[in-house]
Amino acid sequence: MTQPLWTAVDGYFNDSLGADDAALDHALAASRGAGLPAIAVAANQGKLLQILALSIGARRILEVGTLGGYSTIWLARALPADGRLISLEIDPHHAEVARKNLAFAGLDGVAEVRTGRGVDLLPVLAAEGGPPLDLTFIDADKPSNPDYFTWALKMTRPGGLIIVDNVVRGGAVIDPNGDASVQGVRRLAELIADEPRVRATALQTVGDKGYDGLLIARVET
Fold first, then answer.
1. How would DSSP label each residue in 50-77?
2. Contact in structure between 207 and 3 (CB atoms under 8 Å)
């Protein structure tokens, strides 16, 4: 079982099940052209996010970590016409690329990209009030995962989902002396283990993006 095989299998299912289109392809190409790192979610992962959002009837979505807006497009397409997605991006250049990609996809009226540090923007978002979140997708700096999760939990309705990407770290998550990103994931797992308001699991994945995984938590109360 090697990376070329994982990539080929992803390619087969993406081609067979339709996991991309012109707007998504444009978002990836524009991101590459603007010099953004090639770390967006894989196509099948983006479609999984969309299916999860659709399955809970999401109307309000938060994304922490926009990059070029590829995952943002997948999620925003799950929303009804009066839905709203807010995505937080620390890098102004990344945020501008994402805004253009969302406009190209016809989603700039539904999805908003805010620029700044997530730990600074989340308290502001919480203070704005409004309807609770239905789904949060966390895919930003891993050391801050516990902070992002804590704020998301404050704002998410019972029955809502909080999804955290890149939690396996190529298997490094089991190393108690791992780097800052590993420590962020491990602190998150410890926080969730002690949090009675959520029911959570983590899945290992292989594919275009190598060996990693994601954590899915359902807010219970």
1. HHHHHHTT-SEEEEE--TTSHHHHHHHT
2. no
- Whether the CB-CB separation of 41 and 52 falls below 8 Å is answered with no
Q: Tokens 């970590």, residue? A: 65
C-beta of residue 79 within 8 angstroms of C-beta of residue 53: yes
3-219 has CATH 3.40.190.170 classification: no
Exposed, middle or buried by CB within 10 Å (0-12, 13-18, 19+), for 145? buried
Beta-carbon count within 10 A of 151 CB: 22
Hey, what are 65's tokens? 């970590």
pLDDT at 209 (0 to 100) = 92
* 68, two tokens: 């070029």
Residue type, 121: L
Cα(182)–Cα(178) distance, integer angstroms: 5
Q: Rounded to an integer, what distance in angstroms lies between the CA atom of residue 55 and that of residue 141?
A: 27
Note the pLDDT tens digit of each residue in 8-56. Answer: 999 999 999 988 799 999 999 999 999 999 999 999 999 999 999 999 9
H-helix or E-strand spanning residue 84? strand 84-89
